[in-house]
Design a protein that fits this description.
Layout: H1 13-23, H2 38-52, H3 61-66
Length: about 70
Amino acid sequence: MPQITLNIPSEKLELLKEVSDAMGLESEELNLISTSPDWHQQVLNERLEKFKSGHSKLHNWEDFEKD
């Protein structure tokens, strides 16, 4: 099966999904990968490790709004 790589602005991604659905493409046929900068993944990894080690905890949105 042919493969195509596209650089799509985030504001157009939903449109692409709608078009692919209308064409009857299956998820394996439309492999959309969202990429982010390496530094962003590093920050996420650091935060996850802090949470796993007990040095950080989760807060729900309602409590955040109260504070």
